[in-house]
Write a structure and sequence with these properties.
The chain is α+β, with helices and mostly antiparallel strands. 32% of the residues lie in helices and 23% in strands. Strands 1, 2, 3, 4, 5 and 6 form a six-stranded mixed beta sheet that branches. The two termini are 26 Å apart. Mean pLDDT is 82; it is low at 133-141.
């Protein structure tokens, strides 16, 4: 949660953002943010903070479904734009504390399919904590994707 808050602190009102939380399912912050990216205004950032604070860990770690949801949010935002308004950086910041529950093929196909719909312009950045290489003595964290674009 701290890492997500830190990212939210870096956003500007001209940025567009959404959050996808995932475990066994992938979910967006609220109905208002379910069909595309929202401006990074202070009011929207506070809504995202409240959403993140209410998340609780549990379930599987379905990377593929999370990626599909993240790419879909971006696609829904950009499909209605003209060429002059789509020249923005498109970024998925993928954060997880576990290994995927789904196969590598499922994850790879979700990324290939999603990125092809957006002309391969999306950059995926990853942040991982924990996993099989480190036995968890700490409390399980929530898995989150932050999707944003910047002028």
């Amino acid at each position: 949660k701290q890492a997500v808050h830190a990212v939210l602190d870096t956003l500007y009102p001209t940025d567009e953002v959404s959050i996808v939380a995932f475990s066994s399912n992938a979910n967006t912050a609220t109905e208002c943010f379910a069909n595309g990216l929202a401006k990074g205004t202070p009011i929207n950032i506070q809504k995202f903070r409240t959403y993140v604070d209410g998340l609780s860990p549990g379930g599987a770690t379905n990377f593929g479904q999370a990626m599909e949801k993240a790419f879909d949010l971006m696609y829904q935002t950009f499909r209605v734009r003209t060429a002059s308004t789509t020249k923005r950086d498109k970024v998925i910041l993928f954060m997880s504390d576990g290994n995927p529950s789904d196969s590598e093929d499922v994850v790879t196909n979700a990324i290939k399919t999603g990125n092809s719909r957006l002309d391969y312009e999306v950059v995926i950045m990853t942040y991982a904590a924990g996993g099989k290489t480190r036995r968890r003595k700490h409390k399980k964290r929530t898995n989150t994707i932050i999707v944003f674009e910047r002028e």
